[in-house]
Amino acid sequence: MKISNVKLFKYMLVMIISFTGCSSNDVIETDSEDGKETIIGTWTLIQSYSNPTTANGWSDVTDGFEITVTNSNTYISSPFKECTNGAITVYSEEIEFNYRCFNFTAGYESPNGVFKYSYSFIDGLSELRPLNFSCFEGCKSRFTIVE
After folding, report:
1. CATH fold of the domain at 2-145
2. Contact residues for 63 (Cβ-Cβ < 8 A; gap 6+)
């Protein structure tokens, strides 16, 4: 695995399989079966996994929210109207979105305004699973790169 800043996050999150040795302020690039993958770019939520509604538990999402990750370890996102940006920290198998709005919380994360996920890249998608808030039946999100 290589650690470097990259211009495009071409086959991410879906937001994400085996990484080692990244420092907390690096953007990830890794060689995989799908080619090079990174989190830099704009990602759109396309599938969610929870309380299986289909045979495999994944459901398509229409009009999913977007996350744009820059090569300066910041992001812009659209799931919350009250706060849309912050700092991103990437670890070897985890990613942390820290919303930087005074007193912002969605009400279910701990600490407030910080969302931590495990991530992997699967078939050109990035896959995120929450670490600091829970879902009764388990949950994951898949994202595709749009730019």
Report:
1. Lipocalin (2.40.128)
2. none
